[in-house]
Amino acid sequence: MLPDKHLDKILARHHDLESRLQHAVGRDAAVLSREFGELQESVSLIRRYRILQEEIQAIESLQNDPELRMLAEEELSNLRESLRAVTNSLQAALIPKNRDGSRSAVVEIRAGTGGEEAALFASDLCRLYERYAQEKGWEFELLTSNQTPLGGFREVSVQLRGKDVFARMQFESGVHRVQRVPETEGSGRIHTSAATVAVLPEPSEVEINISPSDLRIDTMRASGAGGQHVNKTDSAVRITHLPTEISVVSSEKSQHRNREIAIRVLRARLFEIERSKADAQRAADRRQQVGSGDRSERIRTYNFPQGRVTDHRINLTLYKLDRFMQGDIDEMIDALISVEHAQRLAEIGK
What we know:
The chain is α+β, with helices and mostly antiparallel strands. Mean pLDDT is 83; it is low at 224-233 and 280-290. The chain contains nine helices and eleven strands.
């Protein structure tokens, strides 16, 4: 049996949203409409679940009639089978959904402890996510990058667009630790380095409306490794959101595109701050989300000498690091999702 109080709460919330949507406009309408749509499946299943319960009770009362007993038992068998199927579907639907799961995402990767080796690992993670995006049929777009002379990234941000991007990529947020012999290491000694990843769900313009008066826009001369990316015009753009003092820099060749990219990343960061305020389990800003980048703080370890990758949140180790770095990460993400779903289902009715 499913908890009636929980089912009643969902039905009441659905009715409340339906009433409020009649008068909502703009951002409020978008937010309420999304939640209303997310509840539709659960509400339909709850109504079907309760109708079947009532029908079963009605048929059970006929079992005391000798003339109707056989017919009632046959009907009860069919109804109970239907109730089991609806109950299973309803339990799955009742798992609290991540409201941002269907969103696109901005992924920010930064080199942490470990110098050049950390920057090279940040580049490896970027390629890993690009290959994963190809496997999932997602769109991968490089937004900003700060490259080192050896081809690593001090920091890089990309955008992923496609089905359920944030639902799957959210588990990548945190500190990723790597243990391997760096290419620059002549003695063959294993080094430990780290890179931080932040996965930010991308909001729509309606949800995060940035006032032009809140922005300071500075142009500057672009720079890059070895001077190869230096432009003769001041094309790089830094946009600072004055109320929060968040700054985003983009240094592509086109100043117009730099403004577009910087606003897109800024909107994602501001949206993440709003999400953090509403969710006590998440950090209040990006630094808290991913930690300091120190080796001791990590969600996952990539051990190249042993060919293994370990996710410390669920104590899962996979001995297929080569394939993992090629974007074969679904097994890890599916395991993380399963654990999260089990935890959420256990909370129903508490």
